[in-house]
Amino acid sequence: MLTRKQLELLLFINQRLKEEGVPPSFEEMKEALNLQSKSGVHRLIVALEERGFIKRMPNRARALEVLKLPDSHSPSLGKKPGFKPNVIEGALGKVPPRPVTAANDGAPRSAFVPLMGRIAAGVPIAAIQDHSNNINVPPEMLGGGEHFALEVKGDSMIDAGIFDGDTVIIRKGDTAINGDIVVALVDDEEATLKRLRKKGDSVALEAANPSYETRIFGPDRVRVQGKLVGLLRKY
What residues act catalytically? Predict the structure, then answer.
């Protein structure tokens, strides 16, 4: 799934390659997508490359190759302008209190948590979907508060023991301290699972994989949606 801006950029690059045989410049991409800076273009290109849609040629200026386009029937193509991923607000508010199953002795043995979709452990993606179904988790994993589950997509948190395909359990909340692994919403559009670091007025989203760079934002660009409290894995 691509964000609206990622899809717009991918289609713009593909169209320019078809028409002129060379990709557009960063300035042309910035103007075409009505972005404020070239750093926004770079962020989108990195996202497209990490997800396998484009390839950058080393040691060649403006060298981009489109490897694939999304399926024309993909929901990503149907996004409306102004789309905001339903991370927590709205969706979780519709989820009834989690039911708890009990053993014959009456002691709770499991609890149900809403599975909200996928979260990126790599470059941010518009990852979160509306509540689709519930998953069964040990009640001792939850503690107090409201929780939701997300399927991990990507490998940027592998050194923290979080792998592609894992399911993470998140306690809903909008605050975190340095070192917490959080669900972060960037620019109200992209969601990612990263370790949070704050210094002064800067917010850093730190990967747990040396192959990924730490990304730094202003405080008004990142909103914490919840903190990691548990992990489920199938073998």
Answer: 156, 194
